[in-house]
Amino acid sequence: MAESVVSSVVQTIGKLLIDEAKFLWGVEGKVKDLQKELKLIQCLLRDADVRGEHDQAVGEWVTQLQDGAYDAEDVIERHILRVTLKKKGRNIIIACAWFVAKCMCWHVHQVGTEIDDLKTRISNLTTRMRDFGIQPVNDGGRKQVRALMPELTYPYFEEDIVGREDSIKVLVEVLKDEKQQRVVSIWGMGGLGKTTLAKKVFAHDELKSNFDRFAWACVSKDFNKREILMGIFKMLIPEKRGLVKDMSDQDLFKALYQIQKKKRCIVVLDDIWNRQDWKDIRAAFPVMNTRSKLLITTRNKEVAECIDPHGFLYKPLCLSEEESWKLLMKRIFPKTEKITDNMKRLGDKLLKKCGGLPLAVKMLGGLLATNEWEKIYRNINSYLGCDDDVSKVFALSYDDLAWYLKPCFLYLASFPEDEEIPVKKVLHMWIAEGFVSPTAYGEEREITVEDVAERHLMELVNRGMVQVQFNRSGKLKTCHLHDVMRELCIRKAKRGKFLSVLNIQQDHEREECSSSMGTEGESTCKTRRLSLNMRVSAERNTTLGVEQIGRTMLHLRTLTFFCSGGSEEGMWDQFQPIFINCKFLRVLKLEDLSMRGNLPESVGDLVHLRFLSLAGSRFEGLPKSMGNLVCMEFLDLRVRGMRTFAVPDVLWKLRRLRHLYLPHSFDVTGKPHGYWKKLRLGTLKNLRTLRNFCPDNCDVKDVGKLTNL
User: Fold this and answer.
1) Most buried residue, 305, 509, 560, 609, by CB count within 10 Å?
2) Superfamily (CATH H level) for 165-314
């Protein structure tokens, strides 16, 4: 992870030297020297990252170097922040110009000293690397990145599936037959292809003609009972989907039970983890005297037997050697057009390490498509810290990623388990974080940063690390991580202080605050990104921990909220510590919240903010200080449930905006007496997306000025 951190900081500093040069007056030379010092150690860090997994001393050195890079980024951005905020208040203090100038000179001197100290600290760490024998990594065995994906093509429109034809036939026959078992369970270890098999069965033409209604629900580790029930209701009874939010849990249970008795339905419950999860929702599913069927996937055979002791249990077999080769060739062809005898020999040995698991074979294919096979075989045998051969394949797949792909991959762990992540949104979040550079693939022709981000995603897909869904026109729609990959993702993110995931659950009986990253200590406070998953009851809402975050996590670059189940309104006051203290935020995702009043004025002090999504939230309006967010590139204002949502006429100041989603209905505030003012958008020359444009509230003449739409 240190390679990605240092490389990303070098890239960020370079961008700041270009875009924010006016704010670096007096320290620009020192910043360039610091950037050069970091560049000197980039080529050493891939070797150090891998060795740091197994060597405690090297691991500590890597951590210190990573912290040094983070601190360098903080010092420079803190300086820019101070200068920016002082410029914002210059009219108030114009009478004290001499005093202000003196203070600025002192501040420039202080920042210069901090940068010098950091340079010395990093230089000393670089010297220590000789003690560990760390060597530059030769990437000669890696094929050119450009060759991996010369164009934006999508070779895997369907899930790769090999050796499951008989399994599909058996499962379809059992589900079709009304006299056979009511519950069909597919069980087995992670990565075996249970969900892929269930998808193929669920989409089978013979089932489409045998059932009236269809529903699919992902039951993850931290699933929300009400969300699951509501989702199934909308699929089984789509004609009444508008009523579902007002229904009690008891009403949902009753309605789902009755529709499955009345109609022939098939419901898939994917990835049930334990017995209690089933007990929480089983009242919605009739067991006797019904023509409907349940298709279950689970890792645990005991869970399958608990759901129905007399049900049909099916455990897919691991792939045979022949089937493994067939799947492998699907992944690497046509990148590897001819298999030599030596490649066949190495391939046989490598496939044995996959143990017949389809997920592992796919990831191995991604590795072999972009590297020399001998190198992969040699490297995979060097992983001493992994418990089994399959884990070695997963670990090497991550370590083999280019430095700019690692943060993109780890970032996906910020989304809830089994979440279908909107591709457009996550690409914009990557861009806002600075993970995406237009020069990443060395293209000579002009290419947009959005295209580069999409290439990053497709490279992860081609490596078997991310799964995607396409819309009807063949464009990327959503992506998600397999459970096994998400576990790897979270483990790597924790080690590098890259991301923390905080899960909050609350109901009448208990309040639980847990985190896979820990909720206390230096590692959490220094984390750069925080994902807060709030699972609350319908009767109560909570922002538990929000104030604590704003007081302790001062280094955050990304803060995302995933809220479900709550209905009562909260207070923006609880978010004030975040808006006041978390000044480095680049990405802020406040979706599906219910809050009273306007977004606070203090949000205008988050001058580094590039991505702000308020989609699905309910509150009254935006403050005028939104005009201060001049770095903003993505703004989603598609709030819900407010007839008179207030939008001040300040968006024209956000000249870097590339994607703007206006509310479906809103009023423009700040209009002169007796005159209905409209939003001025003509200055937003960089806009590539504009949604919900309304002539009543926006000037039609401005559209002609937006030449990049």
Assistant:
1) 609
2) P-loop containing nucleotide triphosphate hydrolases (3.40.50.300)
